Amino acid sequence: MEQEFSMTTQAEFKVKNPIDWVTTIFLLTSPLVGIFGTLYVALYETIHLGTWALFLFYFFATGMGITVGYHRLFSHKAYEAKSPIKLLLLLFGAAAFQSTALEWSEDHRIHHKFVDTDKDPYSIKKGFWYAHIGWLFRKRNYVQQGVQDLASDPLVLWQHKHFYSISIFMCFILPGLITMLWGSFLEGFFVAGFLRLFVVHQFTFFINSACHVWGERTFSKEQTARDNWVIAFFTFGEGFHNFHHEFQMDYRNGIRWYDYDPSKWMIKFLSFFGLTYNLKKVSEEKILQKTMFIKEKETLHQFANLGEEKLKTWSEQLAHLRETAIAEFQKWSKAKQTANEKEAVVSKEKFETTKENWEKLLSQPLFF
Ligand SMILES: [Zn+2]
Ligand SMILES: [Zn+2]
Predict the structure, then answer these.
(1) Per-residue pLDDT tens over the stretch 272-302
(2) Per the UniProt record, which residue ranges are transmembrane (predicted)?
């Protein structure tokens, strides 16, 4: 799946996508404004604790405006949301200054469709820094591909049309007005505005860079996306990116209950009040099937020197056990749904024993 970017492709790309000076200058100077602005305020007054609380609130609200809103709701339609929630996500998403929900989703859908190829807008194959921030320094050269559903959403269109006034107000002015309640306008403007924006930018950019470089590939080996809980901590739960690329319609990225995925928790929490609904989840059986298959393929590949005949016998026996385990798992799920307790106990036990045998066989290559 390695994709080389030839000189011609690169040259063509530079012509089609000239440097976007406004974005480039903004992305390079806004961190400095955040850092030095905060230092400037700190020189003249003690920054109020409330301002730091607002910084934290804005950090989560705008970061999750992107992950819960732009990403899981608008790009992937992994769940549906009532209008007030949609509006809040669009307002705080705009305060993360990452373009409109419409354009963001368009880039992101193309990223999934063409991941790791030269059509991927932030392909990791073009380098870590390109995927992280470099791609933003160039103008986009496509207009509304595959986002017709969003283009007909009045709220999304409203945000798209008035993006700059909404984002400038939500990102810089509103925090300033809030901190005027206990201090100066500049506290909110620099600390919860620019400094917070710098942190949110870098953390969300990690999803396109770090999440495609470091971590495990448990659910799919066909592309570069990885699962990494450390990165999940900095990306509002998006660090489980391998799972996400394989099952992009799932509203969760971290599937185990303890996986740090505040975006998933927020979507679920709002669903208790009917504010979000139709939460999509891939079946456990599909996940099991995929993980067992990948583990098997990987182990067989490691012992390729066993010889064709031995490998064939081993792989046939493994496949048989895997299929039996999945069939028992299906029976168990069905029995649970129909509240057939007796059947559930039997099939659960059969599933567990078969899976254990499969694991044993997987760890005994020398047996052949
Ligand atoms: Zn990705
Ligand atoms: Zn995605």
Answers:
(1) 999 999 999 999 999 999 999 998 888 888 8
(2) 21-43, 49-73, 163-182
